[in-house]
């Protein structure tokens, strides 16, 4: 399991020592789309913010979308009526690292607080996940997570993308070559630099290989605590895009850039552990031979009762928090292929099943302490803070309410069960998912999950995304209708 940043400062004096030879510091927060929003600060200004309450940061980053277009409706945090006033940005010293490809400039992440109440704002991704993690800690649990990204790469730059009108893009390599030892010899320096530079950036990787599809890589980030995992996931994207620039390559974490090829996943592995590091999801050593008595199905017999309740909580709430896992218009195109592309689009689970929305990873396929759940619904375009917050909040709600599994495992389902309604299908578009999340009885509105303020603000941002999509005229429409309609 990855450790915290190895040289995080312990005191202000220690911080000053670490920055003794620096003149500037880079800081960044995260917006609702998972985009890093930050700036350089003079060292003296930075140290003043650390020793005080933080520093002012324009709230407009929660009032516009990923292309800096102001949201279509007034939202709770940043709007015309409050003049896009400043938020309070609080520097998290535990996130200290240096950016190796930027002359080792010091880097820190921030969280955003309401300047009046000093409480986390409802839509700050780091603040939302911190709240969920602290809820777990109050029960004596630690939230642990891992993240795997699949991503296409193109021999393009931001300039050539615009010049080509984002069409006829050149993939990094051709053909379908998953786990290829040969394809990594192409673009070899870039392939290795992704691994090596992220290690220096304190974003350790567990695995890095080609995946099936032209120019596709898959990278698994080292398992660690949930907040650090979300930080690492966001910063891996930053690292990959930055390193790619050096080689004239754009790594794309868009969920479905090609219509006829599998999409890009952002699978999340989760578990709970107690203060001694023991897995809450694992059965006792004495149950390893026969499995847990009273398990709902054979697929869950190597999950503890708490693990089964956690799984049930995620399954019950999954349809209501889909925008947290699949936040873009394009992300639902990835799910439209369903199991044919290993992109599950239903409320399903199963032991070691990559066809299910939730894959149970437990003995006998892994050691006892490696027992965990893999949530396979998110795409590579997910915001990891919101996705992990949703999974852990729903799971802990399942434990609290001792929820029963809502359906049998996928191994006991038939194709006909989907058409008869025995298998609950997930929303098939961002519009449908947002409507479901925002309805009054949505589980997302449960204070144990996200609550009304978050749902209204984040839901409003998704309504904006849907509005822009509904107003857009696509190349497909022009090609299909301009002559013959």
From TrEMBL:
The Gene Ontology biological process terms listed for this entry are: biogenic amine metabolic process; glutamine biosynthetic process
| GO function term, MF aspect, one | glutamine synthetase activity
For this protein, the record's SUPFAM superfamilies field holds: Glutamine synthetase, N-terminal domain, Glutamine synthetase/guanido kinase
| Ligase as UniProt keyword | yes
- Name the Gene3D superfamilies on file: Glutamine synthetase, N-terminal domain, Glutamine synthetase/guanido kinase, catalytic domain
Q: Which UniProt keywords apply?
A: ATP-binding, Ligase, Nucleotide-binding
All copies of the GS catalytic domain together span 125-485
Superkingdom, natural source: Eukaryota
Q: Which InterPro entries does the entry link to?
A: Gln_synt_N_sf, Gln_synth/guanido_kin_cat_dom, Gln_synth_cat_dom
The text of the family note is:
Belongs to the glutamine synthetase family.
Provide the protein name: Glutamine synthetase
């Amino acid at each position: 399991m990855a450790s915290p940043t190895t040289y995080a400062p312990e005191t202000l004096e220690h911080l000053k020592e670490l920055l003794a030879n620096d003149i500037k510091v880079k800081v960044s927060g995260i917006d609702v789309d998972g985009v890093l929003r930050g700036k350089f600060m003079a060292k003296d200004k930075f140290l003043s913010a650390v020793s005080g309450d933080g520093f002012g940061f324009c709230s407009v980053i929660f009032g516009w979308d990923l292309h800096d277009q102001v949201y279509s409706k007034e939202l709770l945090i940043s709007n015309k009526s409050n003049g896009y006033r400043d938020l309070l940005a609080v520097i998290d010293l535990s996130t200290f690292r240096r950016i190796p490809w930027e002359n080792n400039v010091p880097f820190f992440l921030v969280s955003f607080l309401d300047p009046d109440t000093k409480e986390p704002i409802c839509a700050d991704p780091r603040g939302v996940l911190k709240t969920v993690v602290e809820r777990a800690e109050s029960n004596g649990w630690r939230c642990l997570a891992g993240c795997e990204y699949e991503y296409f790469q193109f021999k393009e730059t931001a300039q050539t993308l615009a010049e080509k009108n984002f069409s006829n893009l050149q993939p990094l390599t051709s053909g379908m070559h998953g786990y290829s030892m040969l394809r990594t010899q192409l673009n070899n320096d870039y392939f290795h630099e992704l691994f090596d530079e992220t290690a220096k950036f304190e974003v350790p990787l567990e695995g890095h290989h080609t995946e099936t599809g032209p120019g596709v890589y898959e990278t698994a980030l080292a398992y660690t605590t949930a907040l650090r995992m979300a930080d690492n996931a966001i910063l891996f994207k930053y690292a990959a895009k930055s390193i790619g620039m050096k080689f004239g390559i754009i790594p794309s974490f868009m969920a479905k850039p090609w219509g006829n090829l599998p999409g890009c996943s952002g699978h999340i592995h989760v578990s709970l552990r107690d203060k001694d590091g023991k897995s809450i999801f694992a059965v006792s050593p004495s149950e390893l031979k026969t499995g847990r008595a009273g398990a709902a199905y054979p697929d869950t017999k190597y999950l503890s009762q708490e693990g089964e309740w956690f799984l049930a909580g995620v399954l019950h709430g999954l349809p209501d928090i889909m925008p947290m896992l699949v936040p873009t218009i394009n992300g639902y195109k990835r799910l439209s292929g369903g199991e044919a592309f290993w992109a599950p689009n239903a409320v399903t689970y199963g032991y070691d099943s990559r066809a299910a929305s939730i894959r149970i990873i437990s003995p006998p396929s892994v050691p006892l302490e490696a027992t965990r759940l893999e949530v396979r619904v998110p795409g590579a375009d997910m915001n990891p803070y919101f996705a992990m917050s949703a999974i852990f909040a729903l799971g802990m709600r399942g434990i609290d309410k001792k929820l029963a599994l809502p359906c049998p495992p996928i191994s006991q389902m038939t194709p006909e069960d989907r058409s008869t309604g025995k298998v609950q299908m997930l929303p098939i578009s961002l519009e449908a998912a947002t409507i479901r999340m925002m309805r009054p009885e949505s589980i997302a509105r449960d204070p144990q999950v996200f609550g009304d303020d978050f749902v209204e603000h984040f839901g409003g941002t998704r309504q904006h995304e849907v509005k822009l999509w509904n107003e857009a005229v696509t190349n497909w429409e022009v090609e299909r209708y301009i002559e013959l309609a």
